[in-house]
Amino acid sequence: TVVAHRLRDDTDRMETLVAGLLERLDALSPAGERALLIGESFGGALALSFALAHPDRVAGIVIVNSFPYFGPQLRLRLAIFSLSLMPWGAMRIVRRLTAWRMHSRHTHRDDLERFLTLMRQTTRAGYVNRLRILTGYDVRRRLHEVQPRTLFLASSDDHLVPAVEQARLMASAVPRSSMRVLEGHGHICLIAPDVDLGAILDEWTGA
After folding, report:
1. If we measure between CA atoms, which residue out of 44, 52, 41 comes closest to residue 144?
2. pTM over 0.70
3. 102-128: per-residue pLDDT in tens?
4. Could you give the CA distance from residue 41 to residue 17 in angstroms, rounded to a whole number?
5. Contacts from 95-103 at CB under 8 Å and sequence distance 24+?
6. pLDDT, tens digit, 9 for 90 and up, residues 147-201
């Protein structure tokens, strides 16, 4: 069973998002079955935070283009300030103008257009609150505590975060982990036609 989890927009606390994910898992599996968490970018930060808080509920983790700490703190604070003032309707234009830097170059135009359409559902509060969370997010010293088996996927052409560098750092500290580089891909890579997440998971799990 594959379930997408939408994050709350009205909180700037990682603990609240972790509690919300636990509530969702409890609703899906009252018997307390373990879940395989897949988190991309900020979702990877949430997945790591959840695994540290509730290791008994996690069967494994797949972290895509994420980080244990967001280094350019000044950039974060400038982004928070800019997003707080910018007319929200302009965000559609920004996403379209920056798509060539954010997406894998092989992504089909139709898939990109669908992505941009779906992203219209995002809110200013959601964006700003997640950036605020990242100003205080740092699990580097706790990576050795991550218990579940973990796979780090990192795009070689990620222009938003140094994904390969961050994945190597995390993989070197997380005990039961491995890493795979997605050559030629950008930060938003999972909708690219030549990234088959199902095949990657089958290979990783030995299915």
Report:
1. 52
2. yes
3. 999 989 999 999 999 999 999 999 999
4. 15
5. 95/119, 101/159, 101/160, 101/186, 102/159, 102/160, 102/186, 102/187, 102/188, 103/186, 103/187, 103/188, 103/189, 103/191, 103/192
6. 999 999 999 999 999 999 999 999 999 999 999 999 999 999 999 999 999 999 9
Residues present in the chain in total: 207
| SS3 label, residue 69 | strand
52 pLDDT band, cuts 50/70/90, is very high
Buried b (16+ CB within 10 A) or exposed e, 75-110: ebeeebeebeeeeeeebeeeeeeebeebbbeebeee
In degrees rounded to 5, what are phi and psi of residue 158? Answer: -75, 115
Whole-angstrom distance, CA of residue 38 vs CA of residue 197: 10
Cβ neighbours for 201, distance < 8 A, ≥ 6 positions apart: 36, 62, 207
Residue 35, classed as helix, strand or coil, is: strand
Alpha carbon distances (Å) from 155 to 9, 36, 126, 190: 27, 21, 25, 10
